[in-house]
Amino acid sequence: MLLDIKTLLNRHKYYCTLRKQISAESIPWTFPRHPIVEMASPIYEQSCEAYKHRGNTSGYYYIDVDGSGPIGPQLIYCDMTEDETWTVIQHNNTELTRVRPSAGRAPHAARFAYASGDGQLAAVIGQSEHCEQELTYRCRRSRLLHAPDGSALSWWAGGPGEGRRQTHWGGAAPGSRQCACGRQGSCVEPHHGCNCDADRTEWANDSGLLTHKETLPVRSLVLGDVQRPGSEGAYRVGPLRCHGDKSVWNAAFFDQETSYLHFPTFHGELSADISFLFKTTSSSGVFLENLGIKDFIRIELSSPTEVLFSFDVGNGPLAVGVSAGFPLDDGRWHRVRAERNVKEASLRLDGLPAATQDAPADGHVHLQLNSQLFIGGTASRQRGFRGCIRALRLNGATVDLEARARITPGVEAGCPGHCSSYGPLCQNRGRCVEGTGRFSCDCGPSAYTGAFCDREVSATLKSGTSVSYALDQRAANGPNGSDGAPPSSPGAENISLSFRTNQSPALLLYVASHRGEYLALLLNKHDKLEVRYRLDGSKDAETLHSKVRNLANGHLHTVTISRLADAVSLQIDQNSKEDFNLTTGVEFSGIRLLVLGRVHDSGALDPEMARLASLGFAGCLSAVLFNSVSPLKAALLHPDTSPVTVTGPLVQSICGSTSTNPHAAEPTHHQSGQSGSVEAGRPVVNAVRGDSALIGGLIALAIFVTASALAATARFLHRRQGTCPGREIKTVKPEDGPELPLGGQTCSHNGPSENQKEYFI
């Protein structure tokens, strides 16, 4: 197997990165007993939720659940396609797998190995608000939970370690010895707690979600009734899915300078790692303080633009400060991380370079504290902090600010006003909406969808396709219209869309009024764009000709049109804007209909326009927006609640995407929230049969080939040993898709937490 030099260099970079990571993860970090010689700033976020609120989209990310604690980072898939941000942890078999009778009477047993270690799994489950795992069994003459004498036939084990034996099934409560249909009273035979226990010859289904976190994840599964003649079964254990990071949004609001929260003494004798986010409109205040007889540790906002980290371990006070160069009292979230060990102290603020201070060469190293830890204030109740603090972690452990705030006068649990910082994440006219302990993006006014209104809605059309949106019906729904958008002015309109086609001439968009007026956007026979306005029913239409050429070339083009009275502005892609002036009419009132593609009702049009209207459009349309109406989005995502009619083929696709990353596609989630019923069809499954030896042989062959290639690569890399920089940081791609371990890693000094700020200008 021959590899080119570029490939070898890319792999060299990856192995450099991997070598650094393995070396770093082998250090015995056990806080606070062992000193850390070098600063241990984590370079990865602690949850999918944290990545999302840095503006990232779905993909694979390194998750470091305990910061600089002992648990190493793991590559985990983050699904951000819904309002909730899902952490998805796979195991070795998430497919529906058939079990058939074989020799002997032993039950079928399966064990599940997860991509994350036990510590990582426990931390993810513990810090999540909700976790779930699908458990499915499809059966024919194969009982699930109970034999006729009441004895248990099948069970599964779940929870920490090897897990504890559980005798309930997905959708039922622990200890119930039932399936979901038993809880719902919908089993095919009421005296059984599961459909499969009816022991019928037809295929039946018992499935549901396991949601009790103390029993997750599923570690193993035993199926006891699979050896009788005629018995068949198929099981599926889905990936572990969790959402709601309790640490990210765990916050407290300090309304007065004299208010504070107190906790037990902070133990950071030899090493301390403190991180949190804050927002305030005050110019100064103490975030955190803990005192000893002489020693102390303190982090404060010392001025509107500076954060100060100070401490004394018996050698006299030392201070490390970071000056932001921009206001920190702007009511937006800012990130602080302070670290101290026997060698040095460091302070980081947002994405700014870290400030460091060396420890004295000879002197005391133990930080000896004995008072309570004060958050948001001081023991003297002076120079307290007014504002919000959230996501406070001490040596990798989350501090539950909300629980203490609920029982402390002058401090409120949670913090309002997230949109002041995170509002800019809502793109393409999406609106930021405040929620309890979080925010979301309302994509109603946008032609886009997704968590941040950043995913275009695209479709392919044929020449006979017509998408008609009744604008007069929308107006009849009320002053805000059916999509919550205000009515538009008759003297102005704004249009934006993207298209991809090889057809010309072609009609992209047509808007008509009750009085015979219209607006049409089309490609002429010269592959140029034309905008036709007829705003005076007694006169012919005016045609605005763009100078941009070759638009029917199969490439994606973006068009924006803006009109105010007689002034029309047109821009195509990154070309210069083209300005025009209308000479006949400026009011487009009584609009009744918007059409994409072929226009069927063209009787009132002049012959040339009627001919173009009959041609329609064949190709891709994406992110279509007319004023506040997104007809394509309505037709594809909200056809039952929108005044839209579709004639001919309309297929949703990603044809309007500019991303070429193959990992940008979202994973399919198998949802089995109901118990199911008797079915005649067989499941489509992976078979557990005797051909595993053949599969094993193929795997062995693949391993041999891979090992040979790696050996050759290793020999090449050995000659280049030592060329890696001293510090290696993997990057996590923030935009369209994930960056996988082999995806061209570089020996970079800029990790994701340094490149992206919590502060938005």
UniProtKB/TrEMBL annotation:
Annotated spans, Disordered: 473-494, 655-678, 727-761
Laminin G domain residues: 250-415, 456-655
Transmembrane segments: 693-717
Superkingdom of this protein's organism: Eukaryota
GO cellular component: membrane
Entry keywords, A to Z: Disulfide bond, EGF-like domain, Membrane, Repeat, Signal, Transmembrane, Transmembrane helix
Bilayer disposition of the protein: Single-pass type I membrane protein
Pfam families linked: Laminin_G_2 (PF02210)
Entry keyword annotation includes Magnesium: no
Residues spanning the signal sequence: none
Compositionally biased residues, Basic and acidic residues: 727-736
Major subcellular location class: membrane
CDD domains reported for this sequence: EGF_CA (cd00054), LamG (cd00110)
Fibrinogen C-terminal domain segment(s): 39-91
Family annotation (NCBIfam families): GGGWT_bact (NF040941)
Family to which this protein belongs: Belongs to the neurexin family.
Name of the protein described by the UniProt record: Contactin-associated protein-like 4
Species the sequence originates in: Scophthalmus maximus (Turbot)
